Each structure stands twice: as structure tokens, then as C-alpha cells.
User: What shape does this take?
Amino acid sequence: MSWLSTKRVWRSGLQNFFRNGLVSFSSVVIMTITLFIITSTILLGGFLKYSLDKVKEKVDINVYFSTTATEQEIFSVQKSLEVLPEVSSVEYTSRDQALKDFQDKHSGDELTLQAIDELGYNPLGASLNIKAKDPSDYAGIANFLEGNSTELLSSGGSKIIDKINYSQNKVVIDRLTSIINSTNMIGLWLAVIFIIISIVITFNTIRLTIFMAKDEISVMRLVGASNKYVKGPFMVSGILSGLISAFLIIVLFAVGTFWISVYHASYFVGFDLFGYYMSNFFYILGIIGGSGIILGGFSSYLAAHKYLKN
Assistant: This one.
């Protein structure tokens, strides 16, 4: 298509958009609702990821050593864990620190503190706090520790590990992994469903526009206009509807997330909604702008193509 033809198509598309004001307004409203849902899904995904990351920070495995285990033996276990690809960090707590933490935790319980003092020695062993890169990795770490029992013995042949608390945390870990997988799947299906709904509704709205211009289309076809030339103005109108909808959504969410972050931040338990929106602004702009253009242009193309085939 030549530059002159392209220019005419765009001019005709703009004229159609403003001439059919009510229909164009309906298209913008429909696509704005769809883009609103898509943007909300993106922000919800960010909030859920933040929340899940916070929960993941509190999920761990603690390895408690016997009181006879030496620091050299414990450090050897720590090094063997740190080289595992599933492990994010391993924190060592000495026997003295464990006793101090226990005393601080029970600072108001005089009977318990008195009982510890009467023992005359520290009954607590050292421990390692292990954090995995992903909740699903904890099972592998626990299996590694249990599967290397022969290597986790002292020089005297006794076990140096007293307890691994993976079994107590397994329910929480499994539930968290399930939530993460379910959230990702639900977000994906929601986006797909609403995109399909938007295409169908926009398709029917554009068909109404085409029907209203059927006399004009008949004249164009009689004088030998190609199908591309006939479809062009309707695709321009659809793309313009998508761009206007995207612009409205970008402005709406900029104002809305700022307002929520200032006046209702407590509902998001530390998640900075406006900060997340601005830090991902160009990503969201690309998704929303691209979705608006594709929804408007593709729906218009389908509607015009179907009409011209009849």
C-alpha cells in the first residue's frame, strides 16, 4: 500500500472513529474494562508474590546438634550444605547463643530459668538454620541430611545430629508450594479468559460499526477498492480505541495506586503498591499499550474480514 493510500486509510479511520461517537465510546469502555482487569491481575500478582516471599522468609529447616558435637564437625556439615544448589543460606547458632536466646525468650518464667541454673551446665546444642531458594527444595535438603547419616558421625562414631525439624514444617512448606503454583495458574487463566471475552465483545461492537457503514463499503468495493483498503479504516478505529483505553488505564492506576498507598497502605501489609506500579511502569505500559493495540486492531480485522467474506 502506497504512502498516499496509507494516509487516506488513517484519515478515514479517524473520521469513522469520531463520526460514530457512541459506538466508538462503547468500544473504548469495553476495552478499558478489559485492560483494567489485566492491570489489576498484574498488580495482584505483584502483591501475592510479595506476600509469598514474606512467608517463604519464615519457612526454614533447623538442624539441632547433640551437645557432644564439636564446632569443627558442625562447620563441616555447614560447608557440605552451602555447596548444594538448592540452599540459599546456612546460619550457625552456637550453644552459648542458643542458651542466651532461650533465656531471653523465657525471661519472665523464673521457674524455667531457675531449673536451667540448677543444672550447672548448658543442655542446649548448637544448630544450623537452613533457607532454601524455593520451598519445594526443602524436601531434597532434608533427604540429603538423612541420606548422609554415615558422614554425620563424630570421630567416636556417635551421631552428631540430634533432630531435623523438617517434618514439623513439611505441612507449611507443602501448602506454600501449592499456593504459589495455584496462584500462577489462576492468574494465567484469568488473563486468557478476559482477553477472549474482550475480543468477542469488541468484535461485535466493530461489526456494528461496519454495518452502519455498509453503504460506504459497497461504494468502495464497486469502485475497485481492495479488501486491505476497506479493512484499514476499521482497524485504525479499533487501534485508536485501544490506545485511548490504554492511556485511561495508565492514568487511572497511577492516581489510584498513589491514593491507596497514601491512605490505605495498611491493607497491603507493607507492600508499596504505588512504588511497585512505578518501578514496573514501562513493563505495564508495554503490556497495556500492546494489549490495547492488539485487541482493537485484531478484533476490527476479524469483524471486517467476516463482513467482506459474506
About this structure: DSSP finds eleven helices and four strands in the chain.
